[in-house]
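ARCHIVE CARD
Drawer: 12
Card no.: 0347
Subject: one protein chain, sequence and derived structure
Cross-reference: see card 0346
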Amino acid sequence: MKLPWPLPAWVAVATVMATVVAACASPPAQLAPQVEARFPHDREAFTQGLLLENGLLYESTGLYGRSSLREVDPASGAVIRMRDLDPGLFGEGLALVGDRLIQLTWRAGLALVYDLETFEPLGSFRYRGEGWGLCYDGEELWMSNGSSSLTVRDADTFEVRRRVPVTAQGEPVARLNELECVGPHVYANVWQTDSIVRIDKSSGRVDALVDASRLLTGDTRAGLSADAVLNGIAYDADDDLFLVTGKLWPLLFAVRFD
């Protein structure tokens, strides 16, 4: 439609700006996990947080009365050490800062701090809202709460530094769950989906989407409950691999995202 009057200057500028923004919001790269190896995983573990340190997995598991902090041999799936949480706490995301493990809880507003070598409690932090995922990028902690924003926190005090909205092609990406910090990116499971998003830390933009729907065979998936969803990402820097699993999954996968 041709308007019978010229557009005001501010409208013309706004139109150009909107066009530029839309052009910059390019679709995320489409990736898939290429499986390098499969390992056993405790199918009773409701995986909420996962990280790799010195060849060992550290895992936070959830559910009231079943939450724990674990040290696991990734090759065999054997639990080497385990510390149970108070039955009134629901374990969530997990991060390693120096020699301290920090474990979130779901609705208690409590982050538990442990010594890496002994699992002995060192203290705790308080926060508002829910705790879902947590990772450490070497400078700051990145935390999710199931929304479409990540909260960046001071690694020593747990104070909020800033919040980063996460978008894909300009649209919010909600239900961000377990996190893994790798270089300039945060990888995030999207709750109740088979997707992992790669988030540019500087902009919050999703620049890659990983479709992990084919990790489990149909027969394996058929034997799992509805709660057994993809959740858990740990990065192996030595081999440039990701270790990926799910809540109540019987398998842990070593993969590359291609």
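Annotation on reverse: DSSP finds two helices and 23 strands in the chain. Helices lie at 9-24, 218-222.
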